[in-house]
Recover the amino acids of this structure.
């Protein structure tokens, strides 16, 4: 390590959350500040980023970069209009539009979902000020359902549901080509060392990732599919569809861009160029989520319609094919 800002810790007990463990080891860092380090990717185990809720095993080695930019420590509440499809005393279920960043990072410190939640939940003082109520996330250009907690007990309960894989999620995506009618993708996902903002699959190392998929309809060079992730790794669905040769349409980061046009018969070229005029982001939508409410024990399922850009893309394809 080059300076005192870098630390390595050996885990000396089992079954403890990483944010709680580090809070007890790093003097002068609150649990919220520890969470921020973890979310920013400055805490690694086996060179892999982790989540604040990760449960540790004795003997693991944790490497930390303790530098936090002070300007990133302040997250201002902002009034942002949400499409709220459900709310009770514990949770808010939001239909997130494409283009809305979930929480600050990589230069986005305002106009995020987190900023809006701080304003909306301004009377709730117990939530993490950097990720208020946020347990899971959607990429900036992925639309659809996201659940947020309104208090600490709801946050912990929701976190446990995700950790135990008791939250069932369905996504809709337009992908390149015609995958097999249904299948399961099971491997490991790790950060791409050649591109620090991207991830890749591995058969041996990384974090386990499982996605089931099913083709809904084929439209010549493109197909509409349902995706059912059993795990929640960063960019999982985008990485997995690329790994089987059927990248999500208009996903430039994961080989879904317009360079694919040349891979198909020239009779599709003009149609695909028109498709790209509609699809200005990856065609991925979190369409439904299902779980048992941890406080009322009621079975809840929330669904949203496809956004207008995906509907317009499907209409164009149906008109042509």
């Amino acid at each position: 390590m080059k300076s005192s800002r870098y630390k390595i810790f050996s885990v000396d007990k089992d079954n403890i959350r990483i944010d709680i463990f580090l809070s007890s080891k790093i003097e002068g860092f609150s649990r919220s500040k520890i969470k921020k380090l973890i979310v920013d990717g400055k805490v690694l185990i086996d060179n892999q980023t982790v989540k604040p809720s990760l449960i540790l095993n004795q003997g693991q080695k944790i490497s930390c970069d303790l530098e936090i930019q002070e300007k990133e420590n302040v997250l201002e509440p902002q009034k942002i209009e949400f499409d709220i499809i459900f709310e009770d005393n514990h949770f808010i279920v939001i239909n997130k539009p494409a283009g809305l960043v979930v929480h600050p990072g990589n230069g986005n410190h305002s106009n995020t979902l987190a900023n809006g939640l701080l304003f909306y939940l301004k009377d709730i003082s117990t939530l993490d000020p950097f990720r208020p109520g946020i347990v899971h996330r959607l990429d900036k250009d992925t639309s659809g359902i996201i659940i947020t907690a309104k208090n600490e007990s709801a946050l912990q309960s929701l976190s446990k549901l995700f950790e135990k894989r008791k939250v069932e999620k369905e996504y809709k995506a337009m992908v390149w080509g015609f995958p097999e009618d249904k299948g399961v993708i099971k491997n490991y996902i790790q950060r791409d060392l050649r591109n620090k903002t991207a991830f890749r699959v591995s058969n041996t190392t990384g974090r386990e990732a499982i996605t089931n998929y099913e083709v809904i309809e084929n439209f010549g060079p493109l197909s509409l599919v349902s995706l059912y992730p059993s795990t929640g790794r960063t960019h999982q669905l985008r990485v997995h569809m690329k790994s089987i040769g059927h990248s999500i349409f208009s996903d430039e980061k994961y080989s879904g861009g317009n360079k694919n046009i040349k891979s198909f018969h020239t009779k599709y070229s003009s149609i695909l160029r028109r498709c790209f005029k509609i699809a200005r982001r990856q065609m991925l939508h979190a369409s439904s989520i299902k779980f048992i409410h941890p406080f009322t024990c009621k079975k809840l399922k929330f669904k949203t319609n496809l956004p207008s850009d995906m509907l317009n893309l499907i209409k164009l394809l149906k008109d042509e094919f």
Notes: Residues 170-286+309-320 form a domain with the Pseudouridine synthase fold (CATH 3.30.2350.10).
